[in-house]
Amino acid sequence: MRRAKRKKSGNAARVEDVRPRELAGPKSKRGGGRIRSSDVSLDRTELVSAACRMFCCGLKASEIRDRIKTEFGVSMTREVPYLLIGRAAAQGWIRYTPPAQFAVEEKIRQRYPRLQGLTVVHAAMAEDVANAGARALLRMLQQHYADSEVHIGFSGGHAMRMVARHLAELLREPSEALPKKIVFHALVAGFDLYDPTTAPNSFFTYFVSDPGLQVETAFVGLHAPPIISPKHVADVMALEPIRLARKQIDKLDIIMTSASPAKDEHNALRLYMHIPEDELKKAKCVGDILWQPLGPDGPIDLRSSVRALTLVDLKELQSFVAGGRRVVLVAGPCGSCHLPKAGIVEAVLRQERPLITDLVTDSRCASELLNGAREQ
User: Fold this and answer.
1) How far apart (Å, rounded) are the C-alpha atoms in residues 55 and 203?
2) What pTM, to 2 d.p., does this model score?
3) pLDDT for 7 beyond 60
4) Tell me: the pLDDT tens digits for 55-109?
5) Which residues contact 132 (CB under 8 A, 6 or more apart)?
6) Is residue 10 in a domain?
7) Same domain, 108 and 234
């Protein structure tokens, strides 16, 4: 094996100069991340795996460096373990799984006994709550393992997209307790002209024709304008593609949705429907669920000239829950400003007629719920 030539300065060879070439890659921008060995016995991925395993055992970078030197004969600077671990994280090979807060969950269950399922994630990032939401959905699917097919309706937005992506990953892991087929339904159209991935139709690409999935999949999309005038609702719903999609709503077993507080500047009511601040305050709007405004006492009708086109309105959602089917609210912090959603979650939970059956949320939201914080 050819040794890398050293520079006159005497510094060790850079990673990309070390043979075999599979080891090439990790280096610091300052040039400080280096590997030196007379006989490199590991390729790049093997070296990444060794560093990550040691990191997961609690070793520091200097300890990882020393142990790799001792066990594999590969010398490196102290920066290299961080670079190797960073490479693994960027590839999705290592992930952080935040702990659940079981004691907090029990307190919330006592306060809101109508909840059938509850997960509180000790985390501050929307991604972690979305992952927990996907796992909650997987458990529900496993409860339907004896069914030939299960129908799931997805709302839209960044949170729901992350839930769908994590669910697709989970469905690629071996599992025997799953239904034979899952049918995904789009309940809303997408708002964002520059980010169409927030529309449920785009989520379904995670589940299309993938032999790695443990289930068969099918889809009911929604090809419709995201925003319409209230006076045109009946005419739009009568259009053939939308009418057919609406007709299949009765098949739904589970609905997945998120929510957003009215005070969040990234709220869909503000960003896409441009509802004035004074109108939201006058209607006592605390936020939206399924992209529809909600007040402390129930769904509200705003005087706005537009509304979101949805296949299920909030009153129908109440009937859906009353009929014994599941509605899962995944309420992590805002993905942009990290604002927790306690106000809208509390409004949802306090409805006289339940809008949801299951809640997945973060520790800050749960803490505010227990402290009785109410969004004004």
Assistant:
1) 34
2) 0.84
3) no
4) 999 999 999 999 999 998 888 888 999 999 999 999 888 888 899 899 999 999 9
5) 100, 119, 121, 330, 360
6) no
7) yes
E strand or H helix at 288: strand 287-289
Cα distances (angstroms) measured from residue 367 to each of 1, 195, 233, 292, 357: 59, 33, 40, 26, 20
- Tally the residues of the chain: 376
Which residues neighbour 185 within 8 Å (Cβ) at sequence distance 6 or greater?
151, 152, 153, 154, 200, 219, 220, 245, 248, 249, 251, 252, 311
Lowest mean pLDDT among 12-21, 127-136, 218-227, 255-264: 12-21
Distance CA 312, CA 246 (A): 8
Amino acid identity of 297?
A: D
pLDDT score for 203: 94
**Residues 283, 361 within the same domain:** yes
How many angstroms separate the CA atoms of 273 and 250, rounded? 28
Q: pLDDT at position 374, please?
A: 42
Same domain, 238 and 312: yes
Q: Which of 164, 158, 197, 194 is nearest to 182 (CA)?
A: 164
Tell me: do 213 and 322 sit in the same domain: yes
Give the residue from 348, 134, 133 showing the smallest Cα distance to 260: 348
Q: Are residues 27 and 146 in the same domain?
A: no
Domain residues for the domain of 305 are 102-370
